[in-house]
DNA sequence: GCATGATCATGC
DNA sequence: GCATGATCATGC
């Protein structure tokens, strides 16, 4: 096959846009779509059938003459009928052995993925791929502000490999550019790393799902921009994202909640008053969670209140409820909980009680769950699925129902407990009975240990 | 005091 | 109407 050449990025972009709204089945002239389960086949089909290029696995960008990498990527409408990226965008596999000797500018990531031709298509469950259509396309180059963060993400990933910790890499370590697992994770997907004899899971660079959603909303669908926190690129470059935020809040450490409420003229009755305080300090009007940077990086703020003397945190930390009939259909690697803990960074807003029981702002800590603890959540998840499949055993004592889902004594990291509005707030079990909505919680002791960075058990 | 169940209150 | 953060209640 004679490969077609594209003379300019404009010509390439124009060609990509001509594919909008044409069902994939009409574009696929080589039968690539229906033949394999290879997830890459949509991209390969476009490369071959639409752009008339040979499919390859070079370290170079697909359109080598223009330095443009082609990515065909799915989006879906979420519950609120808004378009979101369906998944992270997986880029090239990280060769731990060679990447450590490179600088960002000559890294394999930058070499191949400097400019992306993004083609977003809408994905529908239970609909054949041949019916999918391209929604919109764009040539994407990282905005300067994002590139600062992406460089820092890359440094963080490579630093971990240099420390002999490639096996501890996690998507939650970084903000926009992640190191996501690639392959099933079994023995055959283990790769050598240069500074440790322990083999590490194969991982690939990826743009986080949250970042892909951001691109979709802001550059493809041209929706309204979110409020941004970062307003000083030079400081950001110098300090890094986390320290940039921490340093903005630091002058207020040690101030009492009362003082801060007064200073920022907040309504003390607001249930999220602690988060409002931090938002006010950062100079933003809306919620921290919906600012541009927090959405892009999938950072969830969580307020934590520690009893006097660092003794304990009263309550465990809750997460969204799950449907019993849905969780039993999940695979761990694609499960909600795995995705949550492997790709989310949390911003812990730490308040402490002093000896007069007065609450004061103590610290800010960015945290993501270490891989070994994600494995603990895996155990709780697996037990939960097992109990639901076998039929939840409910015993009633003094008018209270007790179930055999994994409780706090089952595991040091996480447990499952009710989380509904009342007893009538239920989901159906696979056998038709109804049970109060449940969710995963992080054990209060575990959270305390992570926040204080020491053993408390 | 802790584990576990239950439910309140606010805001979207 | 419901998700979510927060908190209370009970009994071992």
Instruction: Specify the helix fraction band.
Output: 25-40%
Name of the CATH first level of the largest domain? Alpha Beta
CATH fold name of the largest domain, please? ECO RV Endonuclease, Chain A
The major pleated sheet works out as:
4 strands, mixed
- The total tally of domains equals 2
Number of helices: 17
Q: What would CATH call the homologous superfamily of the largest domain?
A: DNA mismatch repair MutH/Restriction endonuclease, type II
Secondary-structure-derived class: alpha+beta
Number of strands: 19
- Order of strands across the main sheet: 2-1-4-5
What is the molecular shape? globular
**CA-atom Rg in angstroms:** 24 Å
The fraction of residues in strands falls at 15-25%
CATH architecture of the largest domain: 3-Layer(aba) Sandwich
CA-to-CA gap between the ends?
65 Å
Mean pLDDT: 90
Low-confidence stretches: none
What does this structure look like?
With 457 residues, the chain is of the alpha+beta class. It has two domains: 9-220, ECO RV Endonuclease, Chain A, CATH 3.40.600.10; 316-336 and 365-457, no CATH class. It has 17 helices and 19 strands. The chain has a four-stranded mixed β-sheet, with helices on both faces. The protein has a three-stranded antiparallel β-sheet with strand order 3-9-6. Strands 10-12-13 form a three-stranded mixed β-sheet, with helices on both faces. Strand 12 (345-353) and strand 13 (359-367) form a beta hairpin. The chain binds a DNA duplex (12 and 12 nucleotides) through residues 269-272, 302-303, 314-315, 317-321, 397-398, 400-403, 407-409, 415, 417-423, 425, 436, 439.
């Amino acid at each position: 096959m004679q490969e077609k050449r594209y003379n300019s990025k404009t010509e390439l972009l124009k060609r990509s846009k001509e594919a909008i709204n044409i069902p994939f089945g009409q574009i696929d002239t080589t039968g690539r779509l229906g033949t394999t389960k290879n997830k890459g086949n949509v991209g390969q089909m476009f490369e071959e059938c639409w752009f008339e290029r040979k499919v390859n696995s070079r370290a170079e960008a697909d359109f080598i003459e223009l330095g443009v990498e082609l990515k065909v990527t799915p989006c879906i409408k979420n519950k609120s009928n808004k378009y979101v990226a369906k998944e992270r965008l997986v880029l090239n596999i990280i060769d731990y052995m060679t990447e450590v000797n490179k600088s960002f500018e000559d890294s394999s990531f930058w070499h191949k993925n400097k400019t992306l031709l993004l083609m977003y298509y809408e994905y529908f469950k239970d609909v054949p791929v041949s019916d999918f259509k391209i929604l919109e396309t764009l040539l994407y180059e990282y905005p300067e502000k994002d590139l600062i963060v992406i460089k820092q993400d890359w440094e963080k990933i490579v630093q971990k490999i240099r420390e002999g910790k490639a096996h501890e890499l996690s998507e939650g370590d970084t903000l926009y550019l992640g190191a996501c697992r690639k392959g099933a994770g079994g023995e055959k997907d283990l790769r050598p790393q240069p500074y440790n004899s322990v083999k590490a899971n194969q991982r690939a660079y990826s743009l986080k799902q949250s970042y892909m959603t951001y691109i979709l909303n802001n550059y493809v669908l041209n929706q309204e921009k979110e409020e941004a926190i970062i307003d000083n690129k030079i400081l950001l470059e110098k300090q890094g994202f986390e320290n940039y935020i921490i340093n903005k809040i630091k002058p207020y450490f040690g101030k009492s909640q009362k003082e801060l409420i007064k200073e920022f003229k907040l309504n003390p009755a607001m249930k999220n008053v602690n988060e409002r305080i931090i938002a006010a300090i950062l100079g933003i009007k809306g919620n921290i969670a919906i600012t541009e940077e927090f959405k892009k990086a999938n950072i969830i703020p969580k307020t934590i209140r520690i009893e006097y003397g660092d003794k304990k945190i009263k309550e465990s930390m809750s997460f969204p409820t799950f449907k019993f009939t849905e969780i039993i259909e999940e695979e761990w690697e694609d499960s909600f909980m795995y995705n949550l803990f492997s790709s989310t960074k949390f911003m812990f807003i730490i308040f402490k009680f002093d000896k007069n029981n007065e609450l004061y702002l103590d610290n800010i800590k960015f945290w993501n769950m270490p891989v070994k603890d994600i494995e603990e959540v895996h155990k709780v998840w697996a037990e939960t699925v097992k109990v639901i499949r076998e039929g939840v055993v409910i015993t009633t004592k003094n008018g209270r129902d007790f179930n055999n889902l994994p409780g706090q004594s089952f595991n040091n990291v996480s447990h499952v407990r009710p989380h509904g509005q009342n007893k009538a707030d239920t989901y159906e079990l696979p056998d038709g009975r109804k049970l109060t909505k449940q969710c995963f919680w992080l054990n209060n002791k575990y959270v305390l240990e992570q926040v204080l960075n020491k053993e408390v058990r």
